[in-house]
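Hi Q.,

Before the meeting this afternoon, I wanted you to have the flavin mononucleotide prediction in hand. No need to reply - just skim if you have a minute. The sequence and ligand are here:
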Amino acid sequence: MYMMPTELLRTEIPAIDTAYTLLLEKEDYSDVYPGMVRYVLSVLEGTVLRAVFRTNTYEYAPLSTLHAERIARARAEAWQESLRNDPQQFLVTHPLPRPRVFRYSSTDVVVLQGSPRGEGNSSILAEWTVKCAQDKGKTAQVLFPHDLDIHHCIGCYQCYNTGYCIYDDDMGMVISSLHDATLVVLCTPVYTMTVPAGLKLLMDRCQAYHAKRLLSQDTSTRRGLLFSVAGRTGLDNFSCLEATVHAYMRNLGIRPSGEVLVDGMDRVQDVRTIPSLREKVRDTIDKSLEP
Ligand SMILES: Cc1cc2nc3c(=O)[nH]c(=O)nc-3n(C[C@H](O)[C@H](O)[C@H](O)COP(=O)(O)O)c2cc1C
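Predicted structure with the ligand bound:
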């Protein structure tokens, strides 16, 4: 839930022909993460934002000697002095962050294909999903994490300052695609009881999407499906993966709306040989595309 910011500091700095306001505000996000506070330091010319610095308490790990509020106040002092001395030079050396622009295609259905095997069973499930969506007049695309440039999440929590990750790689495109979709489908094998590494990278990096939703008060939702295959026999082989995928979905406003779990693949080898599986997948997708 959004809370009004608390003003910690406000200083007027007169300059030739104009005046600047240096403002330090504190925003409380403790309803999302216990103790999370974001500090926002702004330089305004009238109502126009000219420079900004943001930091939050979760950026500073237990062994760090740094502290968010102290950093923000120290920065405010330094900015005040620079602005007084030479405002023009200050503005040149503190440009506003440029908005990120991503090249991506917006589709109704986004499929995350988690297997590194491009010709495996998860790929077949992904292909079936796309066909079903298209038969329903929907657009669909498959994202293949193992083929994308995705740096692992380093847990810096800086995405909670801006809504964007510090790494500018293919995740911008992934997040924009997920945001625009009405249905997100994960097609994935079980690897060591959970999802394969490439898909896990993508899931962890969606933390920036969680941050973006929080900071922009975006409460939009979409539906999510899980189609999974496991080598061993028994539905207990999906328990960890299922919990992981559901936690991932809920974190991003994706409502888990159905699943098809296929065990015993070491014996079966090819999902296409399983009687009526394709129809089961189709039914699940059809239901999730209903209004
Ligand atoms: C590294 C690795 C780990 C796996 N771990 C599990 C597991 O924990 N439980 C399981 O039932 N199957 C496991 N499997 C088997 C796969 O889930 C199974 O082969 C699946 O059908 C592969 O899907 P794909 O054809 O989409 O690649 C593992 C396979 C690999 C390569």
